């Protein structure tokens, strides 16, 4: 069990992870410490909302932390690690949720053999439904990997990945919730345009998304098989699906994910060249 977790960065991902951990009683709020670069209002909000320790002093944040979570923008990582490197010890586990940045680069900046785990959760962490992939760096052991798995399992499903696959993970599950929300936005707009009131439409759409997800999870059948089972010949669903095909729905999703993966690679390179 961990006694202290320190977050460097106080953005939406930090908030989501903290919310998930507290909802599952993984840690007491007083065991969680957070700092950020310059937004005191953000720290005040997190402190008031979660009753956690939001600090201004860097050494107080790092001291005695079992796990240090790097949760800042890729462009801010280098400056942050150069600031904290003298304080971080080799017995402290570093977990990075920074998109695009390799464990090798983090270890180089730290200048020591502290174990580094790279993770890619998504914001569904706040309600315990995150999809997270974790990968270990060269100094991390299987025990460090297991510790990270235990942490992220408190906020959803966790899988072990090769680090080179994390750009793809970022594109699929890291950014994935936004794609689903965008789909729901369009379904809501269409529902209103064809006569449903907004509240009724959202109730139906949300349950439809949840039900489809549970069918995928519980049935053991592929998405293609489930889609075909719903699609009766010459029926309403077939008409809708044919319209999606006509407008390149599948191709758009594929290009969307490829674009997100490419941007993850670019972000890593840009941040490391800064």
TrEMBL record:
<feature type="binding site">
    <location>
        <begin position="8"/>
        <end position="13"/>
    </location>
    <ligand>
        <name>NADP(+)</name>
    </ligand>
</feature>
<dbReference type="InterPro" id="IPR029036">
    <property type="entry name" value="P5CR_dimer"/>
</dbReference>
<protein>
    <recommendedName>
        <fullName>Pyrroline-5-carboxylate reductase</fullName>
        <ecNumber>1.5.1.2</ecNumber>
    </recommendedName>
</protein>
<dbReference type="Pfam" id="PF03807">
    <property type="entry name" value="F420_oxidored"/>
</dbReference>
<keyword id="KW-0028">Amino-acid biosynthesis</keyword>
<keyword id="KW-0560">Oxidoreductase</keyword>
<keyword id="KW-0521">NADP</keyword>
<dbReference type="Pfam" id="PF14748">
    <property type="entry name" value="P5CR_dimer"/>
</dbReference>
<feature type="domain" description="Pyrroline-5-carboxylate reductase dimerisation">
    <location>
        <begin position="163"/>
        <end position="267"/>
    </location>
</feature>
<dbReference type="GO" id="GO:0004735">
    <property type="term" value="F:pyrroline-5-carboxylate reductase activity"/>
</dbReference>
<keyword id="KW-0963">Cytoplasm</keyword>
<comment type="similarity">
    <text>Belongs to the pyrroline-5-carboxylate reductase family.</text>
</comment>
<dbReference type="GO" id="GO:0055129">
    <property type="term" value="P:L-proline biosynthetic process"/>
</dbReference>
<dbReference type="GO" id="GO:0005737">
    <property type="term" value="C:cytoplasm"/>
</dbReference>
<comment type="function">
    <text>Catalyzes the reduction of 1-pyrroline-5-carboxylate (PCA) to L-proline.</text>
</comment>
<keyword id="KW-0641">Proline biosynthesis</keyword>
<dbReference type="InterPro" id="IPR008927">
    <property type="entry name" value="6-PGluconate_DH-like_C_sf"/>
</dbReference>
<comment type="pathway">
    <text>Amino-acid biosynthesis; L-proline biosynthesis; L-proline from L-glutamate 5-semialdehyde: step 1/1.</text>
</comment>
<dbReference type="InterPro" id="IPR028939">
    <property type="entry name" value="P5C_Rdtase_cat_N"/>
</dbReference>
<feature type="domain" description="Pyrroline-5-carboxylate reductase catalytic N-terminal">
    <location>
        <begin position="4"/>
        <end position="100"/>
    </location>
</feature>
<dbReference type="InterPro" id="IPR036291">
    <property type="entry name" value="NAD(P)-bd_dom_sf"/>
</dbReference>
<dbReference type="InterPro" id="IPR000304">
    <property type="entry name" value="Pyrroline-COOH_reductase"/>
</dbReference>
